[in-house]
Each structure stands twice: as structure tokens, then as C-alpha cells.
Amino acid sequence: ITNSALKGKNVLTLIKGILKGSPPNCSEGSNRRLAVYQHCIPLCESGDLQTEVAADIIGLLMLETHTLSGPSLAQLANLYVDSIKVGKMGSGKSLELFPTILTALAACEALSYGKGELSGEEYKKQLINSLCSSRWDPQCVIHLTTMFRDVPLSSDELKFLVEKTLRMFTKLDLQEIPPLVYQLLLLSAKGSKKQVLDGIISYFKEQDVRQEEEDMDLEVQSIPQDQLRHVEGTVILHIVFAIRLDHELGREFLKSFKVIQMIFTSYADMCPFSVALLLSVARIQRYEEQVFDLLKGAVIKSYKDEHLQQGSKFLQDLLPRHCSVAHMILDTVKNSVFGWDHVTQGLVQLGFFLMDTFGPKPGPFGKTTEGPVGTTRTPTQQACKLGGQVLLYGFKIHEPIRGEILEQVLNRLVTKTASPVSHYLDLFSDIVVSAPMILLESSSKVIETFDHLSCLPLATVQGLLKAVQPLLKVSISLKDALILVLRKAMFSSQLDGRKSAVAGFLLLLKNFKVLGSLASSQCSQAVSSSQVQVDVHSRYNSAANEAFCLEILSSLRRCLGQQADVRLMLYEGFYDVLRRNSQLASSIMQTLLSHLTRYYEPEQDLLPPVKLEPCITAHGDQVYLQEPLAHLVSCTVQCLLWLQNTQQSANHSADDSDDDEEEGEGYQSHLQTMLESVTRRMVKSELEDFELDKSAEFSMGSSVGVKNNIYAVLVMGVYEVLIEYNFIKAKYNKSHFEELIGLFNCYNKLSEILKEKSGKVRAPSHKTPRSLLSMGFASTLITVLFKDNSQSREEALSVLRSNAEFVRYALSVVVQKIQQLEESGQTDGPDGQSAEKTFRFLCDMTSVLMWRYTNIPSAVEEAGRKDKRCSLSQLCLEGLLRIFTTCQLRYPDKMAQLLSTMGWTLKDEAEQEDATEMNYFYIRQFQRALFTKLSGGEEDFNSREAQLLVSILSVLSRQLNPSSKQFVQMITWTVKICKETSFEDSAFSKGMLSLLFNLHVLYKSPVGLLLELCQDIHSQLGDIDEDVEVEKQNIFAIINMKTASNVFVLSQVEKILDEVEWLIAQKKSQAASDKLNCEDTQSAGQQDPVEKAVTLQLGTLVTALNELVQTSLQPGNCTITLLRVLSRTYSILATLVKYYIQVCTSQHSALPARFEKLVKLSGSHLTPQCYAFITYVQVEPASRLSNRDEKKKKRKNDVNTAASVRTLKRQSLCKICRHLFHDSVQMFIQVNLMQYMKLSTSRDFRINATTLEAALQEQDHSQETTETQNGEGTQEPKKKKRKV
Question: What is a single molecular function from GO for this protein (predicted)?
């Protein structure tokens, strides 16, 4: 046989002959057959035979196996087992015969085993057990797994086999993992699908963790990263292919992740590999929706958990930080660079799915509800940002999906006109900056988007053009296409279309520089030379640029005949164009001058100097603004001032005298003469000269009123522009400043009339018009008013400083500008869109406002003030609060820099301690100011100013590190103020308590603080039973009769309940996980720290609520909120009982003593007081009605009572459930918890017999309601309360 097999000739004929001559029914033939098998199996396994010959031999032996006797089969099976144990089955060629032998063996009736006998089936089980229990050679793992596919196995045997195979993963070479996974997936058709999938995922999760640790240690990698990623990619392909063929496997895979989402709250079982696998499975249509829903839920829950944990020191100390699903997804994107083409499509879908689902939504009336740019505070905003990051990284590293990402982004910009698209604009802008040359390859898609510009909202157009601007400099075709579209849009029938055209043309003018233009530090984003090889619009083409820019300017001149909105855009954009492209100065200034001349009265003796009639237009009965004259004058003045400044700077460095300069001096002198004439005549003008009178109508309901309003706003705007111009030109000349005050007096007179008229008419349209002073000038103005000490200027400045109204006006404009910056991120006027310059202005303003507030005592100011308006100190505080809030929102990294401008100098800016010390220095200053306010009498207390100080302290305290000593000092000071201040001011009290809780929650749990406050409230308001005398205590003096009935304390209770509920959910998930993994994590005799913390929190909370339900609260919001909180507390207690049932039944442990105490506390103390409180809520409102407003108040109280009862019924249901749970617990743990709970046969709440009788006599007409109530339960007398 051996010789024939080696030669490969006639071996099958020879073996067939031997087997035919060896009849199985005689012992000699049977032995000869066994000898053939025993010889052929090692021969085939030796590797000396050709593959085809070995396969033919094994195939023949398989056909003859059924003829072998039982003992022969047993010997052969043992031969296989012994060979596998010693590692002789390396090639696995003979293993195909083994399943046939085992099947035949199972059919035998009895076989000798040891000294006894076993049936064939049992013998087979013993063999399989012996085989799986032995050591396997890594070389034969794949062959054995393949072989077992043909062996009939019970579920236990299969589970044992899969577990054995999965353990072998770590002993195999990485390249052998994919084929083994493939065989395991085929084997999973028999069962144990979840076990197989979980084992594969956990193996790669361990590999990823090891890889990260090796990267951190910077040592030589045991496994190259690219090799691991390629293996992971192959395995993912195998699993996805298996799921396509076996939908049961797919269902089991998704089911395991749904269990993670529903039960496990930590997502610790997820990893980049499992995310990649999910995204690959999403390519199968039937699973697509489920996968993205799973990932969406995982992302948002992960962010919410992180958000909750970051805001509570109590939670941070109890549990470790959660693993971030966002990091896993981003790691998957990075890993996908290693040829994971099957994952990339899922990443694109996931990115857009997150952005679509969690992007900003349209608010009421189409207003956007999104937060400021650059801030991602809420979990929803973070999820949206994650989607953008996935798409941006994907775009950078995967060429095949770039086209699809770009197309989908542009499609959304075009189609989502009703929703905010700022997140897509940000993504598009990032794509342009990161890969401009790649985008130029898809320029046709961008050009196609340009065709829709006239139909898009203005904000979208501005964002899109700003994003695409770097491409315009390197692509002539793109620029030409845009110009063509903008020219068409200029004649659009839609106003937004024309505004879009103006925005586009202005952007082009800003960014295509003409040769000779002054360098500007504010140039928009540029493309680096490494990204772009050739700039076709370089300085050598500046002549073409000039012609191009002049052509655009001629197009824009047509806008001067369009609606006010279009003209306004033009005026607001000209300054930036001039600043970035100074060679266009002549054209721009000539355009403005010629247009301004239309509204200028050249006759020097005529008043007023401006023509208002052409500034309005009428259509039917309506009057509209046609020309925003004040903005036109403002634009002209700002451009003129900038030109004069730049020319003065240039004259210092060089002497140029060419024709252009002479021409410039010509229109400049003309404009200066015109402005001087306007100033002189505007001071002389009376209201009647503008057809305005203080007795005139200013209501927005009539055309006359609208016209007067438009005139008034235009004139006020012109006055403001002239104030700024004349201040700058005055150069601290006293007579010029007196003229400036004359302008202000005229402005103020008109402003007072408008305020007076708007006060009489309640209409939302009467708002203070936005000031036309630039932010830079407003900053300069308050600086010279308050801080300029130079002797040479003192006389001139005294003219301004002596006018109290002017000083107030300057401060109010500063506050208005800061408010505008806070809300929109930019301000009107020059440099209002430059983040760097606006921050510099903020710094200057902060310094001045702080100096003014700290150096001039408000007491001095209050003594000299006669009117009821807010003081200048209060305006300064309001400005400071808005500055700090704006800085935290818009410039979160620059808070230390802002504070340092107020006089503190950082020794080393890199040292965080120095920044913290500086922050606390200013906190102490505001603390001292507040303490001074509180030290005076209550009659002199300025509540609004105190509230502003508390708000400032709240904002600044967010910059402190909760672990720093300054933070602890801040808490100590806040507690002291709350304990010592007894002013009856609800708003101030709420602000202080809010600050106290916000600080306390970052230091430790505020539940103890809450208990003390509830005791104070009970002490101040008294008991619901008038016969009970409450022990007088007043830990916090801030709680008094007026401030005690504040709902704020209850809102803090709800926050604590949120944390407790979250912790119980964490423990339930952990218990479920331990049950699945058959682990017992809790050691005997020790209570889990989380369980202990939850019990203690609830115990203190129940005690606090026990105080509140005995308190004589005012009917209304307070009582309804309290009932809602009680209902939720009982619901959470019921959830806790469920959890203990789960733990006690699985671990057969006793209930913790603390939990028993909690049950006793809630059952014996809180529940009886709830009954009394319910009666009080229903009866008390009716008894407190006054005769005058009886009907009105009765209706309101009836509604309150109905709401209370509805809340109560929910609470009672929870309570009933809780009783049932206690019964269930007793069945398992034999502890009589019900001894603390009094079960009544009455309904959920008790009825006082005398009260019911009185109510029946009063309300005879409500007989139906009474019968219903009588039918619901029997009466139970009210028990006498113990004295508190």
C-alpha cells in the first residue's frame, strides 16, 4: 500500500482488493480491515503522498467505515484522539474520516470502556470531552474546527468546543485568525452564534488595547499595526458574508448590541472593531436602519452620561469615567485607512445621519435655535459635531468617498432652505481648507451649486461664498461661473437673491487685491503654497484684478437704486472692501460722495442740511424706508477716516505726490467741508425742521406714525455718526467738544420723545434703535471719559464729563454693543466682524468699566441722583456681566487674558495657578462689593445691582478648578452670606441659592445642604396643622417668610433624583452583566459603595421631603411641584426595590441594614405625612379665598387641586407597586419589610369625615362627583399628629 501510494499508481485498486478479501464478519477479516485503516491514516497524515492520492484513500475508507466492528471503531477513534493530543495531525488530511468514525461509533449498542460498558453515543461523548479537554497543537486548530462541522454535537458539547477554540486564538499566528474565524462562523450554523461573535469581538478588542499600550510605551511592537488592521478587515468581511447567508446570525449579532443599549449603560463592550463591524453590516439593507438607530442611541447616551458625570462631584467620585463611544467611532475612521473599503460607506452614512438628526433645528418663525459658533455644550451639539468630524476625516483619507461626501454636503445646502445649515457650512469650509486641490477636481459640483444661489437664504449664501473663497483664487472657471450667477442674481425678482448678489460681489472685492493696495492683517483664509502650486491671481495679474474689481463696482452702483435692505448691505460692506483693497478708494469714495449729494442741502443757510423726503417711499397706505441715510453717512465717514489715517501713516514713511493723491485730496476736502456744514446746521436745527414735533403721532399703526418714526430714527442715526466724526476730528479741542454736546442734546431730545411715545403704546415694534457708533469708538469714548488723566485734555474732557446724560449714553451704547456681540458673535460698524479686534475692544472696555465701578462708590452716585433710572454703577456691572458671559461663550480660552487687562499682570502665562489666583483676586473684589451692599440697611438695598454681582460671581467661579483651595474658599464665603443675610428679596435669594448649589455640586453632594434648607422653610412657614408648634431654627438667614416659598429648592431635589436614578440604572446594568457572565462581584458582608451612596442620598432626601410635606406651603406651583417630586421619589424607591429583588435572588444574599432603614423611614415617617398633606392641598385653597376675588381664585385653585390629584394618583400607583415589590422581596429573603408600611383598605388618600360633610353642604350641585367619591372608598378619621 505504501509503495503504491508513493508512486500514485493503482493504490485504490489494491486497497479495494484487500478490503474485499477481508470479510468483516470474521475476526481475521475484521482485524485486517482495522490494520489497513491504522496504516492508511498516519500515511495520509505524513505529507509524503500527493494531495489527490491522500484524498482518494480517505474517501474510499469513509465508504467502508460502516462495515467496521464496534471495537475497531473505538480503536480508530482513540488513535485519532491520541494523535491530536501529541500534535501529529498537523496537515489534517485524514481528519475528514474522523466524523464518519464517530457517527458510526454512536450507532453501536455497547462498547467496553474501562471495566464496564458504554453505549456508542456515550462513548462518543467521552471521546469528544477527552479531545476538547486536551492540549491542542496550534497547527491543527483550524483542521479540528473544520472537522467538527461534520460531527453531530449536543448544545453543551458545541459550547465547550467553541470556548476551547476561542481560547486558542491567542496561541495562533495573526495570519491564521481569518481562516479560523471563517470555520467558526460555519460551525455556528449548529448554534452558539452569540458566543462565537462575542469571542471574536473580545479578542480584537484585547488586541486593540494591547496595541494602544505599546504605542504609549513607544516600544517595539509585538504585532505591526498595519498587519493587525488588515486581519481585522478580513475578519469583518468573513462575518458580513456569513450574516448575508445566515440571517439568524445577523439577528443574534444585532440582538447582543441591543442588549448593550437597553441594559448595559456603560458601553464597555463596544470597541472600534465592533463599530466597524456594525457599519459593515449596515450595508445589508435589512439591517441598515437598525444599525444606525443603535449607533445613534449609543452616541447620544454616551454624551449624556458624560455630561451628567462632569456636572457632579458625587458621581465622579463613585464611578470611573465612561468609555467614549465617540472616541471609538473616530478610531474606526482612523483604522479604516488600512483598506477597509467595506466600512467607509457606512462611515459616510453615519456621519450624515448624526448631522441630520442632531443638527440645529428651526425655531418658531423660522429662527434658528442653535447655539453660538464654536461652542458644543449640549450632548446633541456634540453628536452633531462628531458627525462632521467623521465626514471630514473620511474625506481626507479615503479618495473613493470624496465625491459622495461633497455631493451630499452641497445637496443639503441647496435643499434644506427651511432649516439651519451652519453645521454643513462649517464642514464644507473645513473640507476646502484641508484639501483645496481635491475640491478643484470636483469644481463642476460647486458650479452646479452656484446656479441655486439666488434661491438660497442669505446666511447660507454668505457662508458658502466665504467657504469657497480660497478656491476662487486658484480657479478661473469657478470665478467666472460665480460672477455670471451673481450678475443674474442682481436682477432677481426676489429680494434675498439681490442681497446674495451684493454679498458675493463684496466678497470678491475684498479678496482680489489690486497692485499697490496696502497689506491688511485681516485678510481672509489663504491657501498655503504646499496645497496650491500656482496662483493665477498673483501680483502679476493685478492689472486684470483692477479691471475686474472696477467692473464689479459698476454693477454694485446699480444697487443704490434698490430697496433699503440691499443698500444697507452695500454700505456695511464698503468699509471692509476699502480696508483690504485700498486702490479702489477713489471709485468707492466717488460713488459714496455722488450718492450722498442727493440727500445733502447745498444752500448753507437752509435747515435742515439733509433731505429726508427722498429717504421714504409709499405703496398704497404703507410707508417704507427707501434710503438708510444714517448708514450711508456712517459708511462715508468711516471710509474717509480710515483713508486719512492710512495716508498720514504713509506720509511719515514716504513722500508721494502723484495725480491719484491730488484726486484723493479733492474728494476728501469736499467731504470734510460737507460734513462740517452738516454738523453746524444739525446743531442749529429744531425738531420742526425735520417735520417732527413732540406732540406728533409716533404709533406704528398709522402711516403718519410710521413716517415720523422713520424720520426720527434717521435723524438720530445722523446725529450719532456726526458725534463720532466730530470727536475724532476735534483732537480734544474744547469748542469742538461743546459743539459735539450740542449734537448730543439734539439727539437726546429726540430719543426722549421716542421713549415717551413708546411707553404709552404697548407694541413690540417700539425698540431702542441700534446705535451707529462703532464698537472701537464706544470703547475709546468711555476710556477718555473715565480714565484719561492727562492735563492737556482735562479742560476739553470736562465739557463731556459734566454732561451726565452724555456719560450715561456712552455707557448704554457700550452695553448695547456687548449684548449684540454676545447674541450674534459680531457687531455693526467697522471691525465688527473681526474676532481679534472685537476681543481687544472687550479688553479695553473691561478695564474701564471695572475701574469706574471700583473707584466711584455707588453711594455717592445714589445721593446725587434724582430720577428712578438705573445708576451708572449698575450699567457698569451689567456691561461687565455681559463681557464675562460673552468671553466665556465666544472666547473660552481667553478669559485669563481678558482679566489680565484689568490691571493684574501674569508672572508666567503658562502657569495655571497664576491665572486661578488672578481670577480669584477679581472674585474677591466683587465679593467685597456685594458684602458692602448687604452691610447697609434693607431700605437702601439695590436688589438689581446685588443680582448682577451674584451673576458675575457665578460666571467667574466657573473658571475655578473645583479641586483648588480658591474654590473651597468661594463655597465657604457663599455659605456664610446665605447664613447671615436676611433681606426679604426673592430674586436675590434665588440667585444666591443658585450660586450655592452650583458650587456645592462640584465639591460634594448638596443633599445635606438641602435638608437644612427644608428644615428652615418648615420653621419659617409653619406647620399644616395649626395646633402644632414648630421648633424655631434658622440655619440660613436667607430663608425667611417672603423667600421660603420658592420653588427653587424643589428643582434641586429633582437634580438629585436624576443622579440617584442614573446610579440605580448603572447598578442594574452591572447586575445584568454579572448574571450573563456568571460573575459574583460583591464580596460577602460588604455593601457596594454605589448602593450605599444611593441609600444614603434617598434617606436624606426622604427626611427633607418629610419636612416639606408638613410645611404650610402656599397653594399653586409650589404644592403641585412638591407632589410631582413626591411621586417621582416613590417611583425611584420602587425601582430600587426591583433592583434588590434582582440582586438578592441572583446572589442569595441578605438585604443591607441601610435599605431596611430607608424603607422604615419612607413607610413610617413620610407616607403618613403625605396623607395629611393631600388633605391640606385639597381643603386649604377653598378656606383661604377672599371675598373680592372669590370666583376668579376659586377657578384657579380648582385647577391646581385637580392637577395635584392627578399627580397624586400616579404617586399612589407607584406606592401600590412598591407594596407588591416588598411582598416579592419577602418571598425570597424572609425579611418582614411590610411591618413599616400600613396597608389601608381605604382608597389612595384618606377622607376627613367632617371636611367632606362641609363640602357637601356647600356644593349641592356637584352630587355626581360626591357619589363617585363615596363609591371609591370608605372614610377613615384623621389621626392626631405628634408635635414636631
Answer: DNA polymerase binding
Half-sphere exposure of 1110 (CA within 13 A, CB side): 28
Question: Which residues does residue 622 pair with via DSSP β-bridges, in sequence order?
Answer: 619
What backbone torsions phi and psi does residue 1026 show, to the nearest 5 degrees? -65, -20
- For position 811, what pLDDT does the model report? 94
> Among candidates 208, 390, 423, which has minimal Cα distance to 292?
390
Neighbour tally for 514: CB within 10 Å: 20
Quote the CA–CA distance of 286 and 291 in Å, as a whole number.
10
For residue 719, is pLDDT > 90? Answer: yes
Which residue from 236, 293, 234 is spatially nearest to 261, judged by alpha carbons?
293
- Cell, residue 1159: 424603607
Confidence of residue 766 (pLDDT cuts 50, 70, 90): very low
* 267 has pLDDT over 70: no
Three-state secondary structure of 1202-1216: HHHHHHHHHHHHHHH
Which candidate, 257, 316, 335, places its Cα nearest to that of 290?
A: 257
Q: Greater confidence, 455 or 87?
A: 455
Q: Provide the pLDDT for residue 673.
A: 92
Q: What cell numbers appear for 896 in the block? A: 485669563
The model's confidence at residue 122, banded by pLDDT at 50, 70 and 90, is confident
Measured in whole angstroms, the distance separating CA 141 from the mean position of its chain's CA atoms is 49
- How far apart are alpha carbons 552 and 588 in whole angstroms? 11
Q: How far apart are CA 606 and CA 678, in angstroms?
A: 11
Which string of b and e fits 341-371 if b means at least 16 CB within 10 Å?
A: ebbbbbbbbbbbbbbebbbbeeeeeeeeebe
Which residues sit opposite 624 in a β-bridge? Answer: 617
Which parts of 1077-1166 fold into alpha helices (H)?
Answer: 1089-1109, 1117-1147, 1153-1160
The tens digit of pLDDT for each residue in 852-878 reads 888 877 666 655 555 567 888 889 999
Strand partners, 610: 600
Q: Rounded to whole angstroms, how far apart are CA atoms 721 and 214? A: 66
Cβ atoms within 10 Å of 117's Cβ, excluding its own: 12
Contacts of range 886-889, beta carbons closer than 8 Å, 24 or more positions apart: 886/818, 886/821, 886/822, 886/842, 887/839, 887/842, 888/955, 888/958, 888/959, 889/372, 889/375, 889/822
Q: Using pLDDT thresholds of 50, 70 and 90, give the confidence band for residue 653.
A: low
What's the distance, Cα to Cα, between the start and end of the chain in Å?
104
| CA 575/CA 829 separation, integer angstroms | 9
pLDDT in tens, 1128-1164: 888 888 888 888 877 777 776 677 888 888 888 888 8
Check if the beta carbon of residue 615 is closer than 8 Å to that of residue 606: no
pLDDT digit string, tens, across residues 659-686: 555 555 678 888 999 999 999 999 999 9
For residue 940, count CB atoms less than 10 angstroms from its CB and return exposed for 0-12, middle for 13-18, buried for 19 or more.
Answer: exposed
The angle that helices 422-434 and 458-472 make with each other, rounded to 10 degrees, is 0
Phi/psi-derived region of residue 456, left when phi > 0, alpha when psi is between -120 and 50, beta in every other case: beta
Burial of 735 (0-12, 13-18, 19+ CB in 10 A): exposed
User: In this model, does residue 70 exceed pLDDT 60?
Assistant: yes
**Grid coordinates belonging to 287:** 439591517
Other C-beta atoms closer than 10 Å to the C-beta of 1148 total 10
Cα 888 to Cα 895: distance, rounded to the nearest angstrom: 7
Mean pLDDT in residue range 315-320: 84
Bridge partners of residue 1111, in order along the sequence: 1023
Identify whether the C-beta of residue 720 lies closer than 8 Å to the C-beta of residue 783: no
- Other CB atoms within 10 Å distance of the CB of residue 329: 27
- How far apart are the C-alpha atoms of 912 and 1225, rounded to whole Å? 54
Predicted local distance difference test score (pLDDT) of residue 974:
92
